[in-house]
Amino acid sequence: MTATPSLVDRILTRDPRAVARAISKIENDALDSNEILKSIYPHTGRGLAIGITGAPGAGKSSLVDKLALEYRRLGRSVGIIAVDPSSPFSGGAILGDRIRMQLLSSDPEVFIRSMATRGNLGGLARATVDAVAVLDAAGYDRILVETVGVGQDEVDIVKTADVSVVVLVPGMGDDIQAIKAGIMEIADIFLINKADREGVERTEREIIVLLEMSERSDGWRPPIVRTVATQNKGIPEFVEAIEQYDAFRRQQPSSSSRQTGVAEHRIIELLRDRVLKRLLREALPAGELRQLAEGVASRQRDPYSVADEIADRIQIKPGFHDKGSPNDVEP
Amino acid sequence: MTATPSLVDRILTRDPRAVARAISKIENDALDSNEILKSIYPHTGRGLAIGITGAPGAGKSSLVDKLALEYRRLGRSVGIIAVDPSSPFSGGAILGDRIRMQLLSSDPEVFIRSMATRGNLGGLARATVDAVAVLDAAGYDRILVETVGVGQDEVDIVKTADVSVVVLVPGMGDDIQAIKAGIMEIADIFLINKADREGVERTEREIIVLLEMSERSDGWRPPIVRTVATQNKGIPEFVEAIEQYDAFRRQQPSSSSRQTGVAEHRIIELLRDRVLKRLLREALPAGELRQLAEGVASRQRDPYSVADEIADRIQIKPGFHDKGSPNDVEP
Known about the structure:
Shape of chain A: globular
CATH architecture of the largest domain in chain A: 3-Layer(aba) Sandwich
CATH superfamily of the largest domain in chain A: P-loop containing nucleotide triphosphate hydrolases
Structural class of chain A: alpha/beta
Order of helices and strands of chain A: HHHEHEHEHEHEHEHEHHHHE
Helix content of chain A: 40-55%
Mean pLDDT of chain A: 81
Oligomer: homodimer
Number of domains of chain A: 2
Largest sheet of chain A: 7 strands, parallel
């Protein structure tokens, strides 16, 4: 306590309280969270972020628990982020998860955190990606991102992980069960949990049919892993599949890598936040928004013209190219 | 076919093809959709938008069908928007719905449309609100917005309706079933569907307990309606509850009304879209985003600084107040 290392220093030495505090700052969109993220970013990219999504009742939480325990057995440190988009209909699952996770959380090499939606500005997807960056910079080897819900938000979150796992269970739906087109693109690994149930063969066949219909541009063929997480069955095979995909993706040329697409998406999401906040702060005097909204509510104005008018208060700076990418040699 | 009335004129005379075309333009973010929306906006506010959300399996689609039929019996025209956020796990419900809805769609006084998520720019919530505006301008008396999924997006959509209905079923969850804090604020009406099932008393008691814990600022006490939609039971009572709330909300002072809050939210969402699009179009030369993303992916740059740098290419115009609200008399 004599010297006071900065929050960033403490994150980099994996002080769990510093990690927790940084994530809280990110969730609350604290003023200094941007600077913290800038400072830690060069230290990221070492850990492997594993996104796990799937239908409700697929046993994702048990699976994450067992995966974390297996990684611990292999000597890896583990960060876990459970994403709860606060759906008013998701019920009490989270609390149960938290209690179960306490078994893991007595291990200092395991960090567990749940994240939920906050307000309108900000956004859960952004906060989750940033929290993964904090765990990564803190040196957690494997970062498991588990989504509780099943909406587009969760798919977006899982897409930004290094490895995306889609969890299914036998006999869930009627036909081709729950797999729509979008999910095929994001799954690096398919996992059939509760694989001791009837219908597992059929579920696997359905996945194979879907895989044959679509080919990935990188040539990766997603494996199908069977587990019974509650009985700890298939977990080493799950780890093996993850590590194999990790080895594969590291061989990909960076220009064509998913990383670049993820980075592009991320820059745009950050931009969206920044320009809106700036506009609200600098170009919309206090009270004016409410006044305009009253005009819209009473149909004296239309919201489209109002938004156009406010958006028109910004202009692009002349000569912005000077500050642009140094590789940009346009006049 | 001699004169060619504009799309807007045709919307205002409730030409279903014009209505459908305008909604497609909104979904696809067509160049002229903004102008169409501006033109029709003064003609909105006559119809009543009824948002219906609830847990999966609560029978929302049957309920919407029966509600539509009841409104038809009462001589009201009905627009229906089924919102499907394209969750990759939502299964095949939509198709079934569409088939069932064809029974209704032979009625020229009924317009049915489903809407799904598209890409990143745009946003389902915005498109849904705009589609409601089209149906409203077209003179549909009652506009039913049914959400298929259960995420935050859907809650956001239902919140912007004039009347929000939350659908529950008996015995769905363990304890206080599916009701979290957020949902209490958005429900103007609670509906227990499948009310012939065991546990209906308990579900109602739980809602009452929750209602007693929270008081609405407008003093409205949400009624609890019981229905068995498949047997057409309780539907007139449901209509009665909707109409009573509509009468109540029309008496509220406009300054404190939810309408103003909704309008505020809407202006901000439109702004978010506009400023980002403009920035991408005017301040980010082709290829530069990808180049920056590659730098971020390889950790040469961090995405936060990149976003700051791009955001810094805009500036607030001096003297924007001149173009501001005419009521704004600041120097």
